[in-house]
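Q: Predict the bound structure with magnesium ion.
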Amino acid sequence: MKEIKLFFNEAYLKYGIRQYVTWNPDKAPHICIFGTTGSGKTVASKLLLARTAQCLPDMKLYVNDFKGDSDFSFATKAPRFARYLECEQNFEAFYQRFLKRQSGEDTSRNMLLCFFDEWASYTLSIDKKKSEEEKKKLATLLMMGRSYNLHLILSQQRMDAVYFANGGSRDQLNIVISLSNLSAEGKEMFFHEFKDQIKPDRRQSTGYMITNGTDFTPIQVPFISNMTKIDHYIKEAVTR
Ligand SMILES: Nc1ncnc2c1ncn2[C@@H]1O[C@H](COP(=O)(O)OP(=O)(O)OP(=O)(O)O)[C@@H](O)[C@H]1O
Ligand SMILES: [Mg+2]
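A: Predicted complex:
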């Protein structure tokens, strides 16, 4: 599997060198991005989705935009795009693809990628029983998705254990990206071992990335002045 270029490695950027942090979905199947409101999560996620779509022309993308703001308005009519409570059905469709591959009924192995913007708010907005079911599905996908080339990208403001089944599946989030300054809880939860390296100078679109619990890198999301190309790649991937 290819290494997909994501964001700038900030340590090199200050010497004028554009080195990228990359994503290898085989080695680090699932990603979460978190940070306060306005920290740049959705823009960073969109860049990530577009680059993956560009790199893997047969990747099929499921977008769940729970917040339903204007960031994905270009995709509203696409078949694997959902907002607000439609996300339930779209997430179920993704989960069904997993079950079909697992049972052997579906032998295809092209990448299926599910992006969930505000998974946390989603789990809070549905009734408790449903919420537990959804968290279990997520846990299953995080644990077993990789073998069938199913991957998840979650983006949300907070990463508390309560949004995940048994609090355990967070360990399966192989890449953790924080944008803007970390909250005390965020630092404790994911960045405990790297506390000494964390500086309070993070702004919108800058943060830290940890891959498989070891590689700790300061990052900067490139400045996007025109979303047209990004929107085009995403739209193609939720439609094809
Ligand atoms: N990399 C970037 N390049 C250009 N503009 C950016 C970038 N990141 C963020 N912005 C600007 O900041 C705004 C807020 O970013 P974004 O919507 O990604 O934040 P967020 O973390 O998703 O916030 P929320 O939690 O409220 O959804 C964007 O609408 C955009 O105008
Ligand atoms: Mg957002």
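A: The chain has a mean pLDDT of 94.
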